[in-house]
Fold these 2 entries.
Entry 1:
Amino acid sequence: MRPDILNPLFAETETLDGVGPKLKKPLDKLGLTRVRDVAYHLPERFVTRRPVQNLDEASEGEQIVIALTPTEHRAARSGRGPYRVLAQDAIGNICALTYFGRASYTAKKLLPVGEKRWVAGRLDRYGDMLQIVHPDHVESEGGESLGRLCEPVYALSEGLTQPKVSGLVEQALGKLPDLPEWIESGQFDKQGWPQWADALKLAHKGENAKARDRLAYDELLANSLALMLVRADNRRRKGQPLQGDGSLRAKLDLPYELTGAQKRSVREIEGNLAQEAPMLRLLQGDVGAGKTVVALEAMLVAVEAGKQAALLAPTEILARQHFESLRELARPTGVEIALLTGRDKGRARESILMGLLDGSIDLIVGTHAIFQDSVSYKDLALVVIDEQHRFGVAQRLQLSSKGRRTPHTLAMTATPIPRTLTLAQYGEMDVSKLDEMPPGRQPIDTRVVSQDRLAEVVEGVGRHMASGQQAYWVCPMVREHETEDIAAAEARYAGLKERFGDAVVLVHGQLKPELKDAAMERFAAGEAKLLVATTVIEVGVDVPAATLMVIEQAERFGLAQLHQLRGRVGRGSEKSTCLLLRGGALSETGRERLALMRETQDGFRLAEEDLRLRGGGELLGTRQSGDTPFRVASLEQITKLLPLAHDDARLLMERDGGLDSERGAAARILLYLFERDWGVQLLRGG
Ligand code: ADP
Ligand code: MG
């Protein structure tokens, strides 16, 4: 149970003054559902504005404070257009104060014609006109003091304003309880960090690296500690030592020899399986590195030992693909293998459930449906989880309660993440790395092409299809609203379908599973030649005859994601091509990202570079941490502070593994604060 002292922080945001149903929605959208979240909604940056006498002194893009006198109000011309107030500076320059939506009502009141006002905001240009969109402040007096303010700038969602968020943050900060210190005193003194509550307050007030670092450290410490608790718990558990006699594996009739990395991984896994303590191992290997066959060998060990094994995939499509390739590979062994997804109903499902219960099914492949309460196993001894990053630690723990004894776990990921992040995300696991590609892979010819040349690209895709080969066309999933992304993909699909007819299919996240699978199946069978998709194809899909990939607005993807996407091609013996379409204005890092994609196909290198590009150069620790499990710690802070937090956590575990000491009690509070309380649950259970 959560310690009472944290209750004020975990109260809903509605307990803050001024938050009703109307504000709740935009707050939820930002993930701010409790007082705690609001307190931790740290500013993205701070602004200090320069007071100017007139507009000639200011430059575009600058944050300014200026005295302006409204001369005219212009209502929106159409329903959705902006409301503009034209205003004059001291020497007669005109500037528009622009308001969208409901904000126009306030504009009418705040800016009466003929009365001088101090206006603070960012100067922009709209066509020929200078403008300030939604000024941050409009005051009749006190312009000088506005110029001295250093104000936080918060991430917003529609319906929220900076002052509103500031007000809520202030209230939340007023509710901070007095918490005991969980950071080891030596570390705390050495770093000169503020106390927890002070750090939060300081972080909202101005740029304060020490405060931000302390808060990030807290989050990293909570994470390391929780993962170590999982690991410690795992050591205490009893699993089943699995000793395979090799009889089934000997029957495998692989058309190739395992790479050195695959052999090594299999050996490492065998070593774990032979132990009584349940295995917790991560198999890390780039797309195409050959994880499937390693998983199969592991599962066969379990079957040789007379037990069952399960493979969990994050999507139906993947489950189906895994099922098919495993069935093919395992055919000579004669093991019984079945597929179970959420779509299986009625009799088919019943018969699979029976088979799992009476042990006639040896291997089951499926989505999370295979771990529902209604599914019981005769003797489940090994769980393989594909694309581990899609599942949280908490879910994984749930799975491990399925067997009579704790099953061994092999997690697989094709997301090559940098070393530091491996520690953060999988710190509780041993790692096997497939750092060697199967022989004979042709490099993928990667080119960056301007979006302006779309028509040529479409023609190229046409020629490609005419030659009998298949292609992917990826539309980004990057806009704020998922529906807009879907719309963009659908529009592209419609255009391509018009050009190429029935050979084109569409797959995206909002399609019904039946339709999605039907489209995928047509593509996999080679009936459809062009698959238009949002990033749902990112993970695992394997169609060796697809040898061309077009990625639209490639600059909007992260390196790691581009790499994953590109990995869909280059799977067969034919030469493959990847066209990265880029929009007009590229940022420096955008340019560098695309250049790197052209340069290398080493996923682990790209992951390190991704970290460098995303983490470097940020003034504040913004929450640009992408796929990390962290909300407070930036990539830069993870790199800098995680090793310290990790050591600190280990020390605490060595001294007080039950978290019973005074500091241990403080650490429990920390775990709850960052919702790593599954770590604490294990303590009591164990
Ligand atoms: P991953 O799941 O790691 O992305 P897969 O297991 O799907 O990769 O393997 C990719 C392809 O490589 C498959 O077609 C597989 O048959 C092939 N493959 C796997 N191991 C080897 C090997 N040692 N030599 C040659 N081909 C291999
Ligand atoms: Mg795979």
Note: Confidence is low (pLDDT under 50) at residues 616-626.
Entry 2:
Amino acid sequence: MTATIGLQHLINGAWEDGTGSPVASSNPARPAETVAHGLQAGGPDVDRAMAAATAAKHGWARTPAHERGLVLLRAAAILEQSASALGLELAREEGKTLAEGEGEVLRAAQILRYYGNDGDRAAGSIYSSPRRGETIMVTRKPLGVIGVVTPFNFPIAIPAWKIAPALAYGNTVVWKPASTVPLLAMRLAEALQSAGLPKGVLNLLIGPGSMGNSIVDHPALDGLTFTGSTGVGRNLASKAAGRGVPVQAEMGGKNAAIVLSDADLDLAVEQVMLGAFRSSGQKCTATSRLIVADEIADDFLTELGKRAADLAVGDPTTPGINMGPVINEAARSSIQQGINTAISQGANVLAGGTPYAGDLAAGYFIAPTVLELPRDQNQDVWTQELFGPVLSVRRTGSTQEALELANDSEFGLSAALFTQDITTALSAIDEIDVGILHVNSESAGADPHVPFGGAKKSGYGPKEQGDAAKEFFTHTTTVYLRGGNNVSR
Ligand code: NAD
């Protein structure tokens, strides 16, 4: 039996108990087991956190970027040292396997390191002037107080990739994580606070979804970065934009993998499996649609169905388990409902499809499911994000049709293409309308030093990560700089 951990909020540099209603996270593999519990932040806590972030913003913005970076580097070291313990907590609270949990903690540390070193990179640019004696300089300044609202599915890496650049570029933060994963949020805030953040620079409030609205509606807000579902993201983005507050929103996906007949099929089947079923399919970039060339479809789908059925599903903290549960009962029930609807609309089940009985029925488990859809027939499972281990499949007679099917979505986050033909790959780069395209690798990989984000309805505002983050977390001042006397002209 593992001890339940007490949850606290971070406001103005002090850890405190909440003043709102009770909140608890539970283990989705064994829902009766509470992982962490406490009281939610109360309404007045939003005002207090925003006031603390406002009071801290001038001093933090004036702190040399190198010094700000040192705090992030120390926090990265703290996460690295505790990666296995935090990885276990992540697996217990979110349901990822132990290896994925530890990997995510290390990814968060990698992101902190990337932005921790940013203070030693270029801080602006210089242009020549058409006038004698003048130089034009473009400097960057932080926005101010950033509201950070994050989803459950990467409880430490996604917050890190928002909070690290926000802080590195001199902003202060009020952060509301998803209430299903408060413990990992507390762990990231603890690492940053222990690393020496001045009081008020980072404030953590654990609360319900409605608290996201309170942050967005707050007059002290200077910028909002959100990741989560499309409906919530659009609503928050429209509120912020309506008040002239810059907003960055990363939302849903319905990501396709295309397997053409000239692909390395061993590689393709391995990568499609990873894309569809790692993290129980709960990645915004997970592969949820598969488009397979007619010539190879029978063999490919037989192998894929067999591998999906062979995945070891169970408690993600047990060695040898490939896939854990989904996050909660609401997710399990809506995903299973989506599967049932697809079957009633004519989908052919190649793997999974039915709810578990026995031990697994007690946790929020969904069987890895592969559904082949009838040709030329629109299905909800093809268009709507289920956010679980469900892969819908369509066969295709031509490369052109495959590319069109990949684009057949209101979303445009990521895609994967499997081919050994460079001409096809080059044409797909032009044709497939997504923010992230993988050629011969799964749809769900992302590195911290390059832009991340979606096209079409998947993303709104500047991209995240790498240099792209600077576009959101700073604004520019263009300085026309001349000497103070006429001699230089
Ligand atoms: P969610 O939209 O339910 O919650 C995200 C955050 O918004 C949480 O902090 C939540 O408490 C808050 N929230 C919920 N309802 C709210 C409301 N009415 N008003 C204000 N705030 C509210 O999303 P989730 O279930 O935590 O995450 C899964 C979703 O996130 C999926 O749609 C997935 O595709 C998306 N996602 C996108 C990316 C990306 O980069 N594009 C990455 C990860 C997840």
Note: Residues 43-62 form the longest helix (20 residues).
